[in-house]
User: Fold this.
Amino acid sequence: MAFFIKKLAIIGVGLIGGSLARSLRDQALVGEVVGVNRSRSALEKALALGVIDDGTTDATEAVQGASLVVVATPVRSIAPMVAHIAPFLAPGAVVTDVGSVKQSVVQECEAHMMALAPPGKGGKCTFVGGHPIAGREHVGVEHSFATLFAGSRTILTPTAHTASDALELVRLVWEATSSHVEIMDAAYHDQVLAATSHLPHLMAYSVVNTLSDLEDQLRAEVFRYAAGGFRDFTRIASSDPSMWRDICLENKKAILDIIARFRCDLDRLTEQIDTGNGDALYGIFARSKTTRDRILAENKILKG
Assistant:
């Protein structure tokens, strides 16, 4: 099923929103692209790069007449933004997001849409929760590129209130970027992402903070002799701090649950080191290696 979006509004023209716009534009699947950002300089960059056709700091202005609205703002601002724009949506407009937390976002956004969006003759407006699992540690529209989502996964989290045609449109949009789309319950999504994405990011931030707290002379030597393993493991600690603050606050329960499990495993590892139990240490490391090798072998996306 082909599609064409006559007007696309992207609220938050950064890495994700900009890359989505680039991909759709390259394939002539979108007509007008209007970008929204609090920073006029970011909008000027997006215009200069040809990512958007027009830019504004007024989200209510941008969404008028748009058939698809993508909210690519920090997680904690998604629901307030949907509440802000809902009364100004065109009848039948579809709103989706790209947030890394879904349960609270979907519940709040659906409530705002049902209460505030106009019904109109063009059909009811629908919110479709979405999360493209792709990105880089660098943010900003200047880092966006059309193939960011190629080979990635995008999770959509519809509910009983999600219109089937709206879900289909959002699915087609992400598939057009060469992303593999999967449907998932919002609460389950948050549990999965807490383990596979949120915990690793928190670990990376924590490791860098631990090393930063060492005494000045030792810290200088530690970073001086840091090898590729340190660089690779801590790369994601260069991610946007405000984004990860919001993720932690919005996905609090799932993150605390997985941190508790990790703490137990770390305590067991500490005990084996303390007692000099080489066999137990080898068993932990061998099991981890086998698991990772199997996952990489089975998962084409991770193999890259």
Remarks:
- The chain has two domains: 5-184, 188-303.
